[in-house]
Amino acid sequence: MFLAATSQPVFHKEGSTSLLVPSLGEPKMLPAFFNPRGAFVRDVSLVVYRAYLGQYAKGISKTLTFADSLAGIGARGIRVANEVEGFEQVFLNDINTRALEFARKSAEMNSLGEKCVFSRSEVCSFLVSRFENQCERFDFVDLDPFGSPSDYIDCAIRGVKDGGLLSMTGTDSAVLCGVYPRVALRKYLGLPLRTDYCHEVGMRLLFGLAAQTAMRLEAGIIPIFCHHDMHYFRTYFSIKVGNSYSRDNEGKIGFITHCFGCGYRSILRRDEFFSLRAEDKKQEGDRVGNRKSARQKKPMPSEKAVLVCPECGRGTNEKGGRVALGGPLWIDKIQSMDFVKRCGEISELSVFSEELDLPLYYDLNSIRLRSGTSMPKITKVLETLQSRGFAASRTRLNRNSLRTNATMEELRNVVLELAR
Ligand SMILES: C[S@@+](CC[C@H](N)C(=O)[O-])C[C@H]1O[C@@H](n2cnc3c(N)ncnc32)[C@H](O)[C@@H]1O
Ligand SMILES: [Zn+2]
């Protein structure tokens, strides 16, 4: 029998699919990886694939392909083959022979033998393996690595057709949330921020890495959805091939400034950042040219003028305040509201509820901690903001957080009023 006794295979139902899995309980690494707690994240991805197919498949008569490039025991790929209508072929690839044995068996159990194609290859070889056949690529690719997707992102982008979809996971939460900034700079080409909205910064780093890689490959990305669950940062984006898309993406890479003194945050475009730097250098030059004023003013590092908080006036490393710069990262939309609406129409999952396109959400818990009050109900805060004419919605990136166009001060006042 192909499954050794030590693998303790068990039958498991996820969605409407029967899976043969190593065992149940906590995530299992051996003999093959399976995390039963990832079921929700897979449920969400199936809805996204269905909704994207609805729009993508229009006018395409050719066969559509889905590539589960790091398939593990095939939990996502087998479910896609079984539960999503529209794919002619689902490819499942993993380096682990044992994982593929589980996947093959599950395909048999669900009578998917014809539809599923299995391979045991290094993921990058797999993703470009169809190039031999008239530069053929996959319509949909999923990239679900241990930790960061940065090792494989180039091949994943190259493996997707123009207009196709790439879904990508990052599970290195500590890196994406700013605990190891230097690792983030190496892996994601941008600095993270350890803030109350670190999940959004993490998503923007993931999209930023994808866009900066696509730009190198004369392509671009269009984010359509992302969500956060446990340690999963899941991103979904279209791949568009052509230099006009790289140029478009170039303008969507920028920075976030965050004041750790008062909580003020803002998005800074790359051109704004560089003009501030130029202004800064000019001021420094003026100071050097004017000996009297140079004696009066303390020398200022060039970053300092860029990073002065417009709200509380404190600058980098000043007492009680520290203004930090996150990025370069993705500063444009991280969802398509139309697409999310479509997902909401075919699914009852609350993760597809409407969410405003306002960047950098506020976490109520950190506002109430900073203000020393009790925690108000998020629904009440939203109602109050809306009744005062502000736009406000929850965010799927954090349970106790919201997006609003109210200023930090206005939001803090609402929190203080409701906490009384
Ligand atoms: C997080 S697991 C995938 C989980 C799976 N997508 C799911 O939903 O259950 C990552 C998988 O990548 C495989 N893997 C790691 N490095 C690889 C490589 N360089 N090429 C191919 N597979 C690899 C591992 O064997 C493991 O099964
Ligand atoms: Zn401030």
Topology:
Elements: E1 10-14, E2 17-21, H1 39-56, E3 65-68, H2 75-83, E4 89-93, H3 97-109, E5 116-119, H4 123-127, E6 138-143, H5 153-158, E7 160-170, H6 173-176, H7 181-188, H8 198-216, E8 219-229, E9 232-241, H9 243-250, E10 253-259, E11 265-269, H10 270-289, H11 291-296, H12 302-306, E12 323-330, H13 337-346, E13 362-363, H14 364-371, H15 378-387, E14 392-395, E15 398-404, H16 408-419
Parallel strand pairs: 3-4, 3-6, 4-5, 6-7
Antiparallel strand pairs: 1-2, 7-9, 8-9, 10-11, 10-12, 13-15, 14-15
The structure holds S-adenosylmethionine (SAM) and zinc ion.
Zinc ion binds next to loops.
Q: Which structural traits does this protein have?
A:
3 domains; three-stranded antiparallel sheet; Rossmann fold; disordered N terminus; 420 residues; binds zinc ion
Structure description:
By secondary structure, the protein is of the alpha/beta class. It has 3 domains: 5-256, Rossmann fold, CATH 3.40.50; 257-330; 361-419, N2,N2-dimethylguanosine tRNA methyltransferase, C-terminal domain (Phenylalanyl-tRNA Synthetase, Chain B, domain 1). It is built from 16 helices and 15 strands. The chain has a 7-stranded mixed sheet, sandwiched between helices. Strands 11-10-12 form a 3-stranded antiparallel sheet. Helix 1 packs across helix 2 and helix 1 crosses helix 13. Bound molecules: S-adenosylmethionine and zinc ion (ZN). Zinc ion (ZN) binds at residues 259, 261-262, 264, 309, 311-312, 314, 321.
